[in-house]
Amino acid sequence: MNQPIELQRDYWDAWNTAFRERRISDVSLDQKRWVLRWLDGLGRTDLNILEVGCGAGWLCPSLKTFGRVTATDLSTEVLTRASVRVPDVRFIAGDFMALDFTEGGYDAVVSLEVLSHVSDHAAFVAKIARLLRPGGLLILATQNRPVLERYNTVAPTEPGQLRRWFDRGELAELLAPYFAVRELRTMTPMANKGPMRLVAGHQARRAMRLISGRAVERALGAAGFGWTLMALAEKR
């Protein structure tokens, strides 16, 4: 069900204020590691980067390492504070689908856990493709539907919150008209119900890290049990 954009804005202002401005989750930190790894692999510091759905702007200081950063989000109040913390990033508040950006003007677009919260997924991906230069990169993270549905109890949506999760095949199909997918992986196994809690529950993950570092988490992610689906894709 669609929700008025004003209601969505109010929801994300409140959510970012309560959560993302106060702490960065393990899920987000794992996503950050891969964003920086993939960007570092380009060997450039002159990129024109757009972050779509930047929330409180927590990733922007790291993105600046690779070039100029423009960041956008619905959360007007949160972006006002982010612009004070990170003054050399251009923050633009508003509905991404209604905002004007330079078509073909970006070398890379980063979008973490935004796809599931937009009303028209195909139009969202198509717009990102238009904004990228030929050969430009999309780094996208979204929730991994099978893991959330089978192994986790997730609170119901609230007013202003859209939700539509994807699995690997659905995400690959969504990207295919515009992008060649270089990598598509899952990461950060998490479970709060069923037998998977024994290896992917919060306490179990902490214990496994003490025993084997992140080896078990990497193996579970490679097997598809990660909370996050993450794609590195090149514009065709």
Question: Mind explaining what this structure looks like?
Answer:
- The protein has one domain: Vaccinia Virus protein VP39 (Rossmann fold), CATH 3.40.50.150.
- 40% of the residues lie in helices and 24% in strands.
- The protein has 10 helices and 7 strands.
- The protein has helices spanning 5-20, 26-40, 60-63, 76-85, 121-131, 145-151, 168-175, 197-200, 202-212, 215-222, and strands at 47-52, 67-73, 90-93, 106-112, 132-143, 179-189, 226-235.
- The protein has a 7-stranded mixed sheet with strand order 3-2-1-4-5-7-6, sandwiched between helices.
- α4 (76-85) links the parallel β2 (67-73) and β3.
- The longest helix is centred in the N-terminal third of the chain and has 16 residues, at 5-20.
- The radius of gyration is 17 Å and the shape is globular.
- The model has no long low-confidence stretch (mean pLDDT 96).
CATH topology: Rossmann fold
Biggest beta-sheet profile: 7 strands, mixed
Task: Please give the CATH class.
Answer: Alpha Beta
| Succession of helices and strands | HHEHEHEEHEHHEHHHE
Helix and strand layout, with pairings?
Elements: H1 5-20, H2 26-40, E1 47-52, H3 60-63, E2 67-73, H4 76-85, E3 90-93, E4 106-112, H5 121-131, E5 132-143, H6 145-151, H7 168-175, E6 179-189, H8 197-200, H9 202-212, H10 215-222, E7 226-235
Parallel strand pairs: 1-2, 1-4, 2-3, 4-5
Antiparallel strand pairs: 5-7, 6-7
